[in-house]
Structure prediction request, 384 residues.
Amino acid sequence: DFEAVLAEYIDIELKHDSLKHLHFSDMVSFIPGWISCDLRVVFLKMTEQQLVSAADFDYLKVIGTGSFGKVFLATHRENGRYYAVKVLQKHIILTRKEERNVMCEHRVLLKTVNHPFLVKLHFSFQTKDRLYLVLDYACGGELFYHLQREGVFGEPRARFYAAEMACALGYLHSLKIVYRDLKPENILLDSAGHVVLTDFGLCKEGMSGRGTTRTFCGTPEYLAPEVLLQKEYDRTVDWWGLGAVLHEMLYGLPPFYNADRLEMLRNIIYQPLVLKPRVSSAARDLLKRLLNRDRAKRLGAKRDLTELQSHPFFLSIHWDELVAKKITPPYVPLLSGPGDLTNIDPRFTELPVPQSLGACEEYGATFPGFTYSNENILSLTRGH
Prediction:
């Protein structure tokens, strides 16, 4: 058939998991130059009929904002299912020369599509002006929002979240990916109360166990000292980040926090870690080991996730059951349905939804290889 012949021409093996879901309109850039322009046009028209488009969704509310655009709660018009649709503005990405980071996020989403604690990509597509990532809607909201409302979490709840985060980070590390941006805003809860790690824009790929890099990136409160000092760093920056988030869950603020940002950065580099005894000795010991300024001695430096799993703080965690989601979360969001917005910050949901989002726009291939479909949209059960 036509697709098989074309695949042979462009030397793509469709059985490969990361390629078989690519939309063929994105493969047009691989077509040899000797194939006529007319054939290319016919090919694009044939394949675009299969494409999930912006017009297939109803955009209901803004549920998040970012550097390049916004995240919207949306439903698909055919199956009624709720999704979080991340809409990125191409002109902002191109002006800031962030194409590499955007495509890195897309590749990481393709590689991690089946992990229980990482957000799942269902579809991605592009128009002339925008990029669309259609993701799971985690209606439990951001961990940040819950921390703001509650101040601190008890140890059982903090332990549960930290364990699920650790599994997600360990899985990324097994794929030679360093996350580099762990913070409560990037940690979501699903409808059952499980962790969903999202936003892979700052990930670094190709980082083996001993691999290092020196790119300065991340969020100040959660940055490891070696990143601030612009030294070589490795995957253990993620374990520092986990320590910082765990500290915030238990004590209400990130470690070394100061309202004066410059003073806070000095504290991260030089100030001794002081832990008040209102949490268990096991929790304090874990924090000291994760927030070790010497990355070679930081917990996780030698055996990565395995080291954390054997720490006394996690003694009560049955890791196989945790990954299988057989452990009931300590907090289950009270929801009215799959599109519930109770746990989404009103500062997002009160923002206007642009009417142009669902309009039929001209297809644009500024980002070759971006289009993806993980499933047949019509085969999904309505409303699930």
User: Anything to note?
Assistant: The chain has 13 helices and nine strands.
